[in-house]
Amino acid sequence: MLITVLTFARYRVLLGFERAQVSVAQGTTLGALLTDTRFESLPKDALLAVNQAFMKRDSQLNDGDEVALMPPVSGG
User: CB 3.0 to 4.6 Å from 49: which of 5, 34, 59, 68, for a disulfide?
Assistant: First the structure.
C-alpha cells in the first residue's frame, strides 16, 4: 500500500520533508507507521489526521490514505 504523509509547521523542519510517499503493509496502523525511523524525532503529543480527520494511533491505514502530522495548537 502507498500512503502520503504531510508535515506542517515546525514538523517540516524537524522531519526534513513536507510531503512523502510511504509504502506500508496491509493492516498497518497509524502508530505502526510512526515507528519508522523517518518519524523517530516526532514528539509524542503530535496531532495525527488521516484524510483530514483526527485519528488515534490504533487506526488502521488504507491504500491511498493521506496522513497529516501537526504540532499541538494553543489559543487564547
Answer: 68
Residue 48 CA, distance from chain mean position = 6
Burial status of residue 72 (CB atoms within 10 A of its CB: 0-12, 13-18, 19 or more): exposed
DSSP 8-73: -THHHHHHT-SEEEEE--TT-BHHHHTTSGGGTTS-TT-EEEETTEE--TTPBP-TT-EEEEE---
Give the integer Cα–Cα distance in Å for 18 and 12: 5
Please give the Cα distance from 52 to 68 (Å, whole number): 8
Question: C-alpha cell of 73?
Answer: 495548537
| Domains delineated in the chain | 2-70 (3.10.20.30)
Answer yes or no: pTM beyond 0.85: yes
